[in-house]
Amino acid sequence: MESNFYREIVNDHNLHPTHKHELADADIELRGVNPSCGDDITLRLKVDGDKIVDGAYTGDGCAISQASADIMLDLVIGRGKDEALRLADIFLRMIKDKITDEELEELEEAGALIDVSHMPARVKCAVLGWHTLENILGNGLPEVGG
Ligand code: ZN
Questions:
Q1: For 26-44, what is each residue's pLDDT tens digit?
Q2: Pick from 12, 56, 78, 143: most CB atoms within 10 A?
């Protein structure tokens, strides 16, 4: 059930992550954990008003959890917080329910992870970064540490 596109995207972001590093001047950070697989990431964002100007993550976990966080940051850096939350909502609906073709297109590379919707055991891995993003942006109060 895995498409070549899915495999290539996950491999590529694991071998050559763009955003897996420290972010010393981050404004907000939040840890996300998926105990069922052992995935553990810390998401850090630099914001200017309502705009996400930079972002990074550190952590460990399976290929899907790490690649998904990297792909997510590719998509949301440079966007407004509301826009990032809207995209996270589309991603989570893609994995757990269904979305329109237009919505799929908006997700760009992240749309490759639609294959995970057929892999129940990997769903928590794929959504970890996106849930962490929702939490970091959604509940208003920045949280630092774990
Ligand atoms: Zn995992």
A1: 999 999 999 999 999 999 9
A2: 56
User: Rounded to 5, what percent of the chain is helix, strand, coil?
Assistant: 55, 20, 25
**CA–CA gap between residue 64 and residue 107 (Å, rounded):** 16
For the chain, domain boundaries: 2-138
11 C-alpha to ligand 1 centroid (Å): 14
Distance 124 CA to ligand 1 centre (A): 7
Topology, domain 2-138: Sufe protein. Chain: A (3.90.1010)
What residue has token string 């981050």?
26
Element (H, E) at 91: helix 81-96
CA 110 / ligand 1 centre spacing (Å) = 16
Kindly report the pTM of this predicted structure.
Answer: 0.92
CA distance 66 to 48: 26
